[in-house]
């Protein structure tokens, strides 16, 4: 190869390098040529979610992201869910920091610049800036009322009103800037404040002197700090708020009907002991779940969902059992998919995994959304019998009590469990509900059918 060819290659490479520098400089001088950044908004991760909390950002500004990367953890009304991005780029702006609460669905929380763009030059959309400015002005004008209603409990608020204290002067020690009763008491003692008595009303002016003295001698109940009980205000979790709304909706719109049956479980107890000896650790509730799944296959009217908007209900082709699990934040119902097609051991393993994830707040949306029927078992808490509220859009729920040792008519010992079925009378008649419980009782009385791979029916 000749030196002339080398010189040509070197000249061409130099021109290409200069061209790239010119284009790059031109793009930097004209930011308008950049594509608009991708807006990251608070997603709706469950059908009942209207707002959420940002627990933690897992990416920092300037970090590159690819589809499938987890940007942040969001606490919904059900669990803590990992929010994955479907775009490629660089996280340019974090508009709402972590530990932020009650963020409405659709609120802009961050910006993602496209690959190749200068992420540092990304600016916040003007609409968001204007909205933030309006919100800031509204918050400043209603600062005192917001602080009183949202960041201070009723006991502390009573003391503030009684002593005429400016809330802005108090130093909150509670979580997330919450003003506690002890904060107000400390401020009162430090400044040696005295209660500001209300001016007497015209009705009080016409009272006779003895009555006034009697009123003054009478100890006020709850108006003075020394007579108030010692307690701590606890903020409701989003999950408990949603549970309350759904319970009210269910009881006020669904015509609940109830039917109870006592089911024999002696054979299940014996079979369970035999399986435990074979290192197959299952619970009575696992047998009940399998029996319910098979009963739903034979009585499909109860394996349905109700659409409140159209007023129609749909019989589902799959039997997905929701198992009620108690957590610190409230009750959640993870789902065992196709419970009628898997054996008792698989149901047991699925329930254990889902229950642990539920207590840790790590359930994914598909693991608790949906379901065709719910089982709520309080037998392990010593509850003999209870009735449960239907979990919409489902049309039925089974409440299971504890096992009780009783004597039959022949004075023989037998173990019974009380089960109460709550069902939507619009979608299911009494005879079909009775058929379901009779079928369930038959399976529980014949547990060999529950451990067969393919029951013959």
Question: Strands, helices and their partners?
Answer:
Elements: H1 3-29, E1 38-41, E2 51-57, E3 64-65, E4 70-75, E5 80-84, E6 89-94, E7 100-104, E8 108-113, H2 126-141, H3 143-150, H4 154-163, H5 181-191, H6 202-205, H7 209-217, H8 238-253, E9 256-264, H9 266-277, H10 284-298, E10 304-307, E11 312-315, E12 321-323, E13 325-327, E14 330-332, E15 335-336, H11 344-360, E16 373-377, E17 396-407, E18 413-424, H12 430-445
Parallel strand pairs: 12-16, 16-17
Antiparallel strand pairs: 1-8, 2-4, 2-7, 3-6, 4-5, 6-8, 9-18, 10-11, 12-15, 13-14, 17-18
- Tell me the span between the first and last alpha carbons: 84 Å
Which strands sit side by side, in order, in the main sheet? 9-18-17-16-12-15
Shape, per Cα inertia axes: globular
The helix content, as a percent range, equals: 25-40%
Instruction: Report the structural category.
Output: alpha+beta
> Can you write the helix and strand succession as a string?
HEEEEEEEEHHHHHHHEHHEEEEEEHEEEH
Low-confidence stretches: 1-32, 132-150, 200-216
Main beta-sheet annotation: 6 strands, mixed
Query: What is the number of strand segments?
Result: 18
Mean pLDDT: 80
Beta-strand percent range: 15-25%
Q: If helices are DSSP runs of H or I spanning 4 or more residues, what is the number of helices?
A: 12
**Radius of gyration using CA atoms only:** 32 Å
What does this structure look like?
The protein is an alpha+beta fold. It contains twelve helices and 18 strands. A hairpin with a 2-residue loop joins β13 (325-327) and β14. α10 packs across α11 and α10 (284-298) packs across α12. The chain is globular, with a radius of gyration of 32 Å. Residues 1-32, 132-150 and 200-216 have low confidence and may be disordered.
């Amino acid at each position: 190869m000749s030196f002339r060819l080398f010189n040509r290659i070197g000249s061409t490479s130099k021109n290409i390098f200069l061209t790239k520098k010119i284009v790059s400089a031109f793009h930097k001088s004209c930011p308008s040529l950049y594509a608009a950044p991708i807006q990251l908004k608070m997603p709706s991760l469950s059908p009942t979610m209207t707002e959420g909390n940002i627990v933690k950002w897992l990416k920092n500004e300037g970090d590159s992201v690819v589809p499938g990367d987890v940007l942040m953890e969001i606490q919904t009304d059900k669990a803590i869910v990992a929010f994955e991005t479907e775009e490629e780029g660089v996280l340019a702006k974090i508009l709402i920091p972590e530990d932020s609460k009650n963020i409405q669905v659709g609120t802009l929380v961050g910006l993602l610049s496209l690959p190749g763009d200068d992420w540092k030059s990304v600016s916040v959309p003007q609409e968001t800036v204007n909205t933030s400015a309006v919100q800031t002005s509204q918050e400043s004008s209603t600062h005192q009322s917001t602080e009183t209603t949202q960041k201070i409990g009723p006991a502390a608020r009573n003391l503030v009103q009684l002593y005429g204290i400016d809330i802005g002067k108090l130093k909150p020690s509670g979580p997330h800037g919450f003003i506690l009763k002890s904060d107000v008491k400390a401020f009162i003692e430090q400044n040696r404040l005295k209660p500001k008595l209300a001016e007497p009303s015209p009705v009080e002016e016409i009272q006779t002197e003895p009555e006034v003295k009697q009123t003054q001698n009478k100890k006020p109940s709850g108006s003075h700090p020394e007579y108030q009980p010692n307690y701590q205000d606890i903020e409701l979790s989003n999950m408990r708020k949603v549970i309350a709304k759904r319970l009210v909706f269910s009881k006020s719109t669904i015509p609940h009907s109830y039917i109870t049956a006592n089911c024999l479980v002696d054979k299940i107890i014996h079979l369970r002991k035999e399986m435990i000896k074979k290192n197959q650790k299952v619970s009575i509730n696992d047998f009940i779940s399998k029996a319910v799944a098979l009963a739903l296959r034979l009585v499909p009217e109860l394996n349905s969902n109700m659409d409140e908007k159209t007023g129609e209900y749909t019989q589902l082709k799959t039997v997905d059992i929701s198992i009620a699990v108690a957590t610190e934040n409230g009750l959640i119902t993870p789902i065992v998919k196709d419970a009628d097609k898997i054996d008792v051991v698989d149901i047991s393993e699925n329930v254990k995994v889902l229950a642990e994830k539920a207590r840790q707040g790590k359930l994914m949306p598909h693991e608790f959304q949906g379901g065709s029927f719910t089982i709520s078992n309080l037998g392990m808490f010593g509850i003999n019998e209870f009735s449960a509220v239907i979990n919409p859009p489902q049309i039925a729920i089974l409440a299971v009590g504890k096992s009780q040792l009783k004597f039959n008519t022949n004075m023989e010992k037998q173990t019974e469990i009380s089960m109460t079925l709550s069902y939507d009378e619009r979608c299911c008649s009494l005879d079909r509900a009775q058929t379901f419980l009779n079928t369930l009782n038959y399976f529980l009385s014949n547990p060999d059918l529950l451990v067969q791979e393919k029951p013959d029916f």
